[in-house]
Protein: DNA-(apurinic or apyrimidinic site) lyase
Organism: Agromyces rhizosphaerae
Amino acid sequence: MPEGHSVHRITRQFARNFVGHVVHASSPQGRFAEGAAVIDGRRMVDARAVGKQMFLEFEGGVWLRVHLGMYGAWDFAGDIRMDATIASANGRMGQTNQRGTFLDAPNPDAVVLDAAGENSLTSIGAPRKARLRMSEAEKESDAPEEFPPEPVGQVRVRLLTDTVCADLRGPTACEVRDSAEIEQTVAKLGPDPLVDDTDAAEQRFTEVVRRKPTPIGLLLMDQSVVSGIGNVYRAELLYRARLDPHTPGKLVPEETVRALWRDWAHLLRIGVETGQMMTMDGLDPDAWRAAMADRADRHWVYKREGLPCRTCGTNIVLEEMGARKLYWCPTCQT
């Protein structure tokens, strides 16, 4: 399932390519024909993300709410203008990492390719013709010969301007809502550091966690407690905090809860900038390049069950928590 950084990246593509343009909407699959008819011919005026949900606003107070869920993905095609901080190299989409940004990589100018189809760090400039899939991993393929291209697969909704189209497949939620309904939806979500990184947002997160008897490993995945954290970030945040996933929220020290919030803000920004869930700090240039090229070198505990902890040597444990796989070190995190 795409985690918060991926949804923010997709939303930035809509902000760059669709906001300000009249959009033609259709449902090649047919399941969203009624909703597409409501959007069709309206100008997109805003694109926002909160956690794992994205919200596209059109003239007249009409919104499209999308939750990609486990299998959803957007395909972009046409003269795609990359977001100012998003770039591409050698067929894979990524984030530009220029000197002066917050991400202090050991070698900011390195071209790093990820073998699993995630992202690189080099800008190619824009606009240019391309076909780009954006979900948890972003992959670019050859540009279609005709524009707009024929829909491929079960396209729930197609959004089309004169130069760019975006096809949505397999979402958990795709619905038209008015402004009041969107406000109600957002109000039910926990804070997102990229939307609100104020002291008030940190306090809200801290107070909710500190009054719950629920294990912290479940609270971090509860989108009403905090927005955007999925399975990868949960495991890595808990390890970085040296926190037992089974600890009830109310028993986690306040300073640790606040540190979790700040670390989530830190990792989320890195994820948006690089396109990768990089969760290891302080790497030398060679280790950085290896980590950006291979997820196996990018995380402390995620997907490392049975392997020795990078810190203490204890084998990483895999168990199920909240119907999702949980990876943790029983020595460092107790």
About this structure: The chain has a mean pLDDT of 84. The helical segments are 4-17, 33-39, 179-187, 199-210, 216-219, 231-240, 254-274, 285-293. The chain is about 25% helix and 25% strand.
